[in-house]
Specification:
The complex is a heterodimer of chains A (253) and B (666).
Chain A: H1 2-31, H2 47-79, H3 92-98, H4 108-118, H5 123-157, H6 162-189, H7 193-228, H8 233-252
Helix pairs in contact in A: 4-5, 5-6, 5-7, 6-7
Chain B: E1 7-8, H1 15-43, H2 55-70, H3 73-94, H4 106-110, H5 118-132, H6 144-165, H7 167-176, E2 188-189, H8 193-197, H9 201-229, H10 237-248, H11 258-265, H12 271-274, H13 280-291, H14 299-322, H15 326-341, H16 349-353, H17 355-358, H18 377-381, H19 388-392, H20 398-405, E3 409-418, E4 432-440, H21 455-462, H22 468-472, H23 476-479, H24 496-501, E5 505-511, E6 517-524, H25 536-541, E7 547-552, E8 562-572, E9 580-588, H26 611-619, H27 623-638, H28 643-652, H29 657-664
Parallel strand pairs in B: 1-2
Antiparallel strand pairs in B: 3-4, 4-7, 5-6, 5-8, 8-9
Helix pairs in contact in B: 1-3, 5-6, 6-7, 10-14, 11-13, 11-15, 13-14, 14-15, 26-27
The chains are: A mainly alpha (253), B alpha+beta (666).
């Protein structure tokens, strides 16, 4: 039934095509100055439109595959260097071999956590490590929030490239995915922990930040001393003495 | 198609004009720019008697730079363009303009001059019509063609006569250039016929295809890639990305040093354009050895590396300012100056404390008497405890003294927020910071009494004219001032034209509350430098000119009425010791007040022997800030309301140990 139909359809199609070509040649003959009355009527086989369709679909598929691949490649290239710790470079082969289930492969606490998990470490250890991982994630999210207006300014002013901006946006997404991952892991240990782990992680984060600042005080002091005092003690002491004398004068007044 | 109605340019009448226009459009601007650059350069020549250790290399670097400026592709193309133009002009002058037969010129047809009287026209017409009348011409021995041409000639003569005498025909002629009324518009191709339809037509098609399919896409993609790979301020996107990452990760715990900045900037990909073998480490080593003033094996390479570094630093600065990171910005400016002066200010405390003296050409760190507390230029020139000869341990110090006298110093007179046309700051208004200042030499003591300024200086330069132009564009006053031109050029930096173009002060407006930059950095590069050459007496009698600097705020003043405190930080891009920090108060009020407030936070220079001066010396560059705090204390009596605010922010502002000392010592 259907084959008949198609056959008749094809027939009628060729017919119409023939009439059309006849008409075309007729008009050509009528209008053309040269009087070549060669009949160019030629029937076209059914394969032609199918071939056309085939070629079209093939090209579209090839293009889409190619396009997807380049897109993935571009994304990989974008994330190949970490946004947060420029000194720390992750090699792709290391990551692939370790089978890590974190979206942020440049986060050291996340790597430690997954390593511990692989080693079947004690649960307490794993929990602490997860809190650490959450704290690092929190720090990054806060950093990203903090720098968002600056990045927007830079991007709108054209002071950074498109890729840098895309990289930044991607990091925001990765960080969100990391949070989800942490929440999922937390839920595995104890139901409802995913709700309390983040406040705890925030406290840990604040504590770490404070510690970093306190620990740096001595170092800062040393650097400043080297820069402003060592070697020019005479001059500095002289100035200090003068300040002190003036201070005493003021107090006396 | 081939029987086209188009006319071709067979006699090459049109295409030379077309080509002439096409060439002249880009040629004239480029010629003007080349000529103006030639004039600009010839104006200046800075010669100093001091020659640095690498003087030969510096000289050859500068020479090659000048040469490359003069003999580059642009100049060659311009010269070639002018040769083409002369060729075209020659062609044009040699081609006779053959007007097409359609062109109608009644006077020519009648063989009379254009100012002929009616009588002459009539006689000429009669004479010609007699000659060409179809009945009068003997057509017996003529071919059909000849007969036709005679007929046509007679018709033309008639037409011409009518065009000059008949009213309506004349009007038609004047309006449309044809006695028959409007003519159809003709289209022509400014190419000869053979190029389009002859044997050469494939050639033309190839040219077209090459242009549209190859050259145009190449140009566009080139341009687009260029746009994509460089940022607005001309740095490579990779470099900008690197700077961005650095600032995202900027650690508040780390004491930022010039060394860190150099290390960070050495990762820029721009250095690879100089030499692809340059690694960040080698770049870093080259720059450090340059600021340490050490000799180097490959001096040329080093000079090339150093010459582009300040540009990278300025784009770094812009990115740092977008992150509102004041520490980074100030350190980048320090690094910039270190490179311009070839002075490693953080090598040790000696370099750091004596940096203002060490930047002077010919001063040797190993020779100066570091027991003398001559830390600033002012101290060296004015309140010297020992003679400069003794202090610098040199026989001839004249050139050094002269050099240092020409370093411009900012002496602020008034600094406040202003809204054009208002005498107070309404909420949500577009305000700008206005700084009125004097440029003085370090040798000038104190500052002239306000009353002693000349009247027209006060009226024109201090108080701005309330004209419509000034109110509409507050920046106009600033832009009308001359550019800052340095009178003494630092000898070490290879690219002198960079220094000349980028001399001035970088201005950062910082919030006192959290020490964050609130406005993108602006450069103060327009000021009147004439005061530098005044003698001390002239300076005090005040023959000085007042300069103005303004920063337009991009955000409106806050909604809430209140007092907001800011600090205007000015850092010289070239010299040490010409910096200043000025507190500015934004007093947002809702209702207009009758009497405009006198600027209670008047700014005065710290006297070198006063407590402020002493503290300033202790703290190095932040000379004026301490002074201002004193000012605030004295102003507290006058204005008790502001007392709390001031205390709160002066306490916050203790970034480093040294500054803490300074504050404590009060």
């Amino acid at each position: 039934m259907s084959s008949e139909n198609t056959a008749s359809f094809a027939e009628s199609a060729t017919e119409t095509f023939e009439t059309f070509t006849e008409y075309a040649t007729a008009t050509a003959n009528a209008t053309g100055n040269e009087t070549t009355t060669e009949n160019i009527t030629k029937s076209i086989s059914l394969a032609t439109p199918l071939l056309y369709l085939g070629v079209l679909i093939f090209t579209l598929i090839t293009f889409s595959i190619y396009h997807r691949r380049t897109k993935v490649h571009q994304l990989q290239k974008l994330t190949s260097s970490s946004l947060f710790n420029p000194e720390y470079e992750i090699k792709a082969e290391d990551v692939l071999s370790a089978n890590i289930d974190t979206p942020t492969i440049d986060s050291i606490p996340a790597l430690i956590y997954s390593d511990l998990k692989e080693l079947n470490a004690h649960e307490k250890m794993l929990k602490t490590s997860l809190v650490q991982r959450a704290a690092e994630s929190m720090r990054r999210i806060i950093k990203l929030k903090e720098t968002e207006p600056s990045i927007m300014i830079l991007y709108t002013k054209g002071l950074i490239g498109d890729d840098s901006f895309k990289r930044y946006q991607m990091q925001v997404k990765l960080q969100d995915a990391e949070m989800m991952e942490i929440a999922k892991e937390a839920e595995n240990y104890k139901q409802g922990w995913s709700r309390t782990i983040f406040p705890i992680a925030q406290e840990v984060m604040m504590n770490q930040a404070l510690r970093r600042r306190i620990n740096s005080i001595n170092e800062r002091k040393k650097i400043m001393e080297n820069l402003t005092y060592k070697g020019v003690e005479n001059v500095m002491d002289d100035i200090k003495a003068r300040i002190d004398s003036i201070k005493i004068n003021i107090v006396k007044k | 198609m081939s029987q086209s109605r188009y006319e071709y340019d067979e006699n090459s009448e049109t295409w030379p004009y077309f080509a002439l226009t096409a060439i002249l459009v880009p040629l004239i601007p480029s010629t003007i720019s080349i000529i103006s650059s030639l004039f600009k350069k010839s104006n200046k020549s800075h010669k100093s008697s001091f020659s640095p250790y690498n003087a030969n290399y510096l000289q050859s670097f500068r020479n090659s730079q000048n040469r490359s400026k003069l003999f580059n592709l642009k100049t060659v193309l311009t010269i070639f363009g002018w040769i083409l133009i002369s060729g075209l002009l020659y062609i044009i002058s040699n081609t006779e303009t053959i007007l097409s037969e359609n062109h109608f010129d009644p006077w020519k047809i009648l063989e009379i001059s254009e100012n002929a009287t009616e009588k002459i026209i009539k006689t000429a017409y009669r004479k010609l019509s007699l000659k060409y009348h179809p009945d009068k011409v003997d057509t017996s021995s003529m071919t059909q063609e000849e007969i036709d041409s005679v007929d046509a000639a007679y018709v033309l003569i008639n037409k011409a006569y009518k065009a000059l005498t008949d009213e309506t025909v004349r009007e038609n002629f004047l309006k449309y250039g044809n006695p028959d009324g409007p003519v159809e518009i003709k289209h022509g191709i400014a190419l000869p016929h053979f190029l389009i339809e002859g044997a050469f037509s494939p050639f033309l098609v190839v040219i077209y295809i090459a242009f549209i399919a190859i050259v145009l896409p190449l140009l566009v993609s080139n341009w687009w890639n260029g746009v994509k790979s460089t940022t607005k301020n001309g740095t490579h996107v990779t470099t900008a990305d690197h700077f961005m990452k650095l600032l995202i990760n900027a650690s508040p715990t780390h004491v930022l040093l010039v060394d860190d900045i150099i290390k960070q900037v050495s990762h820029s990909v721009e250095y690879l354009n100089i030499n692809t073998a340059l690694t960040p480490d080698t770049v870093y080593n080259l720059i450090v050895s340059y600021i340490n003033r050490e000799t180097c094996k490959d001096e040329n390479l080093r000079l090339n590396v150093v010459a582009i570094t300040p540009k990278l630093l300025s784009s770094f600065l812009e990115i740092a300012a977008a992150f509102k990171n004041t520490d980074y910005c100030l350190k980048i400016v320090d690094a910039h100056r270190s490179i311009i002066q070839a002075l490693n200010i953080e090598k040790d405390a000696k370099h750091f404390t004596f940096k203002e003296i060490l930047q002077l050409p010919g001063v040797d760190v190993s020779k100066i008497d570091t027991n003398q507390s001559i830390l600033t230029l002012g101290k060296l020139l004015k309140n010297k405890t020992v003679t400069p000869e003794k202090f610098l341990n040199k026989d001839k110090v004249d050139t050094i003294i002269n050099y240092s006298k020409k370093i411009p110093i900012i002496e602020p007179i008034e600094c406040k927020f202003k809204v054009p046309g208002e005498d107070h700051l309404p909420p949500m208004s577009a305000a700008h910071v206005s700084l009125k200042f004097l440029i003085k030499s370090p040798a000038h003591k104190g500052k002239p009494d306000f009353k002693s300024f000349k009247k027209d200086v006060i009226n024109n330069q201090f108080k701005e004219e309330q004209s419509m132009d000034n109110l509409k564009d507050p920046m106009r006053v600033v832009n009308l001032q001359p550019n800052v031109e340095l009178l003494s050029i630092p000898p070490y930096f290879p690219d002198t034209s960079y220094i000349e173009q980028n001399s001035g002060w970088i201005a950062l407006l910082v919030s006192q509350r959290d020490n964050k930059i609130i406005e993108a950095p602006k450069i103060l590069n327009k000021a009147d430098l004439s005061n530098i050459n005044l003698t001390q007496d002239e300076f005090m009698e005040s023959k000085c000119n007042i300069s103005t600097f303004k920063i337009q705020l991009s955000t409106p003043t806050p909604k809430e009425v209140g007092v907001y405190h800011f600090r205007l930080i000015l850092r010289n891009l070239t010299y040490f010791g010409s910096d200043i920090d000025i507190p500015v108060v934004m007093n947002v009020e809702d209702k207009p007040i009758e009497k405009s407030k006198v600027d209670v936070y008047g700014i005065e220079d710290p006297d070198e022997d006063s407590i402020a001066g002493a503290m300033a010396q202790l703290r190095g560059e932040s000379v004026k800030r301490v002074e201002f705090k004193n000012e605030y204390e004295s102003s507290d009596d006058e204005d008790d309301e502001d007392n709390d605010d001031i205390v709160s922010w002066t306490d916050i502002d203790t970034d480093t140990e040294v500054e803490e000392d300074a504050v404590d010592s009060k």
